[in-house]
Design goal:
The protein has helices at residues 14-24, 45-54, 63-77, 84-90, 95-103, 131-139, 153-156; strands at 4-7, 31-34, 58-59, 108-110, 113-115, 142-146, 149-152, 163-166, 174-176, 179-181, 191-197, 199-200, 203-204, 210-215. By secondary structure, it is of the alpha/beta class. It binds manganese (II) ion.
Length: 221
């Protein structure tokens, strides 16, 4: 295996994503993973989803992918669907697009690396998650450290589920002891980022991670 290349939230910013892949010079030996939220908010949602699928890039389920999975099951059961925007998008998908979403993992562990969309807490064990904990993976931001004391999850995370690479909360690259946040808000006019890990023996050296970035062409949301 070559490098592991992990992309932050793309939100339909396909032009920037193509440019970033070109800049990194991804090759057939590299393993590419998106942290999820491939679409919604940005300019080319459908094309981005199809691009990820056709390029063989793995997508972790984000809160927006989760919405589509919920719509798929609501349709099957004949239940009402609340999110009109997501429903309109869902109706444009091909059977292969839907199959790609259903095949997307909620998290991925590769040696010492763990990739999730939003975050996790110290009490969660990825191999034994409850239904509620699945949706924590796609939404988590702050956790209570004590009464009235809320901190960003990665500040308190003790590394018991590996070194976590995540997106979901847009801002600059955030580095904590056991986690790396790579959603740099491309759809809001900032940057699209990727974290690149090289194999060192049996593991990936988180201290030697390389960050590659391109600027957003414009502000979309
Ligand atoms: Mn998200």
């Amino acid at each position: 295996m070559g490098r592991i290349v992990i992309y932050g939230d793309i939100h339909g910013c396909l032009d920037e994503w193509r440019k970033l892949r070109q800049k990194i010079g991804v090759g057939a030996n590299d393993c590419e993973i998106s942290v999820g939220d491939l679409f919604s908010k940005g300019p080319k949602p459908l094309e981005t989803l199809k691009y990820a699928r056709s390029e063989g890039i793995i997508t972790i389920v984000g809160n927006h992918e989760e919405k589509l999975l919920e719509i798929a099951s609501a349709k099957k059961l004949g239940e009402p669907i609340e999110s009109r925007a997501h429903l309109e998008f869902f109706d444009k998908l091909s059977a292969n697009d839907v199959a790609y979403l259903f095949a997307s993992p909620r998290f991925l562990k590769i040696a010492n690396l763990t990739i999730v969309h939003a975050g996790l807490t110290n009490s969660m064990c990825l191999d034994r998650l409850s239904e509620d904990q699945y949706s924590i993976l796609t939404r988590l931001r702050y956790v209570g450290a004590g009464a009235m004391d809320y901190r960003f999850w990665s500040e308190l995370y003790n590394g018991n589920q590996g070194f976590v690479v995540y997106g979901h909360t847009p801002r600059e690259i955030r580095r904590d002891k056991h986690a790396l946040g790579i959603d740099t808000g491309c759809v809001y006019g900032y940057k699209l980022s990727a974290a690149i890990f090289e194999r060192r023996g049996e593991r990936f050296d988180a201290d030697a991670v390389e960050i590659a970035q391109v600027d957003a062409k414009e502000r979309y949301a």
